[in-house]
Amino acid sequence: MSRQIVYQNRQRNLTNEEVSKIREKILEALKKKFKVKLKE
Q1: Reported pTM
Q2: What is the pLDDT of residues 3-28, one digit of tens each?
Q3: Burial class of residue 30 (count of CB atoms within 10 Å of its CB; 0-12, 13-18, 19+)
């Protein structure tokens, strides 16, 4: 299964660093709850 996530802020552009931090939090939560693995 694959999913697409759109990162956006209505007031300004997000930096790569902000997106990376959000992505890591999401991935950690998915790994913990569903034991998912990323396809490399």
Answers
A1: 0.76
A2: 899 999 999 999 999 999 999 999 99
A3: middle
